Hints:
Blueprint: H1 2-67, H2 74-91, H3 94-110, H4 114-125, H5 132-144, H6 152-159, H7 170-183, H8 187-198, H9 205-217
Amino acid sequence: MPDIFDEVEEELRAERAQQFLTRYAGAIAAAAVLVVALVAGWQGWRWYQARQDQAAAGVYITAMLQAAETGPNATAAHAASLAGFGQLAQRGPAGYRTLARLQAAALEAAQGHAPQALELWNEVATDSSADPLLRDLAELLWTQHQIGTGDPDALEARLKPLAQPNNPWHAMATEQLALLALRQGKTGEAKQMLTALTNDVTAPDGVRQRATAVLAQLPG
């Protein structure tokens, strides 16, 4: 008897399953098609992004090589480099947009075009979508290229957050703050910062060496 009941129960389950499949066959098929479409779409998007990254990398490398040109064609090469960086800054992938603006700013500065360089550095420094490390670098470069002429209060306000110990650029930012203090005649304050830099084992060697050299030239 138990075997008979088990068989009947299995038959009923099979019948209910068949009814379920018959009733919802269309929805199940549609869901399966949707899953396939989503997977295909995701793979297509990844392929498109890879192609975009490859194209951006090509433009970026070409612009870098043109920026390094020093021969008789340097002027034309630098103009082409700025055009390439400009293209990436407008339409490139996110990472390349930031790097392109930084490279373009460096090239503009090297050519003596300070206003254009400062504008590009400020764009990166105030771009919330850019990598924080690169934003802070742009902030540092923006202040560094105005340390002798810019408004002291504005420069100090932008340098102080960078000079915090947990910031990767803190040593270079402290160096700029010391130079700014010297510019304003705050020799004692500058000495304190420079001395701290000479003892900062996390500071780059170049920063410590410059701090030592400047301290040696200060009175007292």
